[in-house]
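sorry for the late reply, my laptop died twice this morning and i had to redo everyting from scratch. anyway the thing you sent over, i finally got around to it. pasting the sequence first so we're on the same page, its 653 residues, then the predicted structure underneath. double check i copied it right bc i was rushing
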Amino acid sequence: MNDRITSATNENSGGDPLFAVLREQFGLTDFRGDQEAVIRALLAGRSALAVFPTGAGKSLCYQAPAMLLEGLTIVVSPLIALMRDQVERLCERGLGAARIDSTLADDEVEEVFAGLADGTIRLLYVSPERLAGTGFRKRLKGMVISLLAIDEAHCISEWGHNFRPDYLKLARLGRRLRVPRVLALTATATVQVARDIRRGFRIARADHYQAPLHRPNLRLTVSACDGIDKDELLVEKLREIEGPVIVYATTRAATETLAAMLQQRGFSARVYHAGCEPADRAAAQDAFMRNTTRIIVATIAFGMGIDKPDIRAVIHYHLPKCLEGYCQEIGRAGRDGQPARCELLASAGDTLTLENFIHGATPSPQGLRNLLDRLLRLAGPGRPFAISAYELSLSNDMREETVRTVLAYLELAGVMDRGGSYYDVLRVVPLRPLPDILAGRPPRERKTIGVLFAAAEQAYGTLHFKLHEISAATGLNRQRVVDILTELAAAEDVRITQRGLREVYQMSKTWDGSVTRVIGDISQQFEQRAGFEHGRIASVVGYVTSRRCRTVLLAEYFGQRDGVRCGTCDRCRGEPPVKLGVRAASAATPDEWALMAALRDERHPALGTPRQLARFLCGISSPAATKARLHRRPEFGLWQAQRFDEVLQWLDA
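ok and here's the structure:
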């Protein structure tokens, strides 16, 4: 690991083109920390790993070399909003940057490829899923790709705190594209995760740059909340703080409740979570960024890519699920270098919610076998097949991310190969009456368009073309239907949006066909993952209750053994250690048993197995129950204060 810090300045840089780029295109006079060392490694043709805290300037490490290297720099980023913000900032500086994501229309995507072809675009931002598609990679054929930058690179590791299955394939994809150098970037990586990243991208240990975790302006404090009113403690903390604050809560329901409570107490507060309407999320974020809202109450969905330097406090209302996420979240405070508070309100009951989340994300052995059996039956030798991860998640009542993880495991195990993807449903909005659209067209063409429009489903002025069904009903093949509708859109007769993404796979020619072994291996991987997640909860509890300096504890968790006491955390200030009591769940009441029995007797398909019913009663969301809108029922979360495995035992008895 490399901990050296460079201190080159403009005065001694002479005619160095790197400093010219830094000054002329980014308006800076010097690098921070190891930024220059990382960039020099890339310019020398080596790959590098940069583990820099939130706000330490990771993006400059690939943006600056992109201006000096011949060819294209591809940046893999997990969030569309993050890509959009970075591209807008680069374009404002006159730098050639673009993104390709699902929000762009076909003509906008073609504009981007035109810019790539003529060299005006030097930086291209894409998602890992986009890079994994063979169709996209074919469009890159013949282009010189000089650098692949992987943002949030901890997602490559199954032991990272935000594992995304398509990240697993990035190292292999980079080699297929023959990219000469890779830059992996993350704010947090344990020793094991960093090792996985280096191994995957073949990064030398000497090119692993790790910035110190400690930021002296952050004051870390943990308050025990067992037996006291946590809401009152939160209000007390907020009244002590001046300036913008992020309050993190574990569940969407908790953010809604807390935001409403704070508003009633006179605070300027808004809610933000993934279940909010996109317009509401955007409005809440905008109000917080402009300081018209002082407090944002959010799940961890809020924060990635938020560049607000004056956040004076980050308060965790519940225990975080892992120390990696906790460090990222508190890293959003005090980026301006001024003092900021990082408060954690801890109670023993919080661990129950976190453990139940693990149960919600872990598929049952039978559910996993059913999914794998279906996939492997579809995968006939030499025959491509198309699937929808969304539809598989519904039919197997398994989270879509879990389905995608299974698909990634099958690819990495050499069972299946991924091909391209396509949309199976086109939403068409006619911009003119049908007679006007048909006017002037040859008779055969008029008849074909009329037949197509008649076969489409109509809903609120929109025509839904389910391509497989339309093909069967009209005798036209799928591509012919797409070509006709695309031509109408080009003539501005209709407007098209695409839905129903399907991904094409094919059984690998090298797979030996051992279904039982594959099912066993993947089941074991999920079991190991669940055990690992439980271990991370234990690490959080250990951090909360420790008698040692909190900054030193966090540094050691991430493999930095030379940490010194911060002098500012609650432990260094001499405050008594935090004790978490053991929370004993109360017994279920007869009324609760009666509600459960009535719900079970309804035999709703989304609650048909004891495991599905246990998840629902413990307040754990599932695709089938969400689609059926069952979460509005009062029984949802009836036993959320009980342990999932105990509830499952009750229902199995």
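Residues 1-12 have pLDDT under 50 and may be disordered.
thats about all i looked at so far, will dig more tmrw
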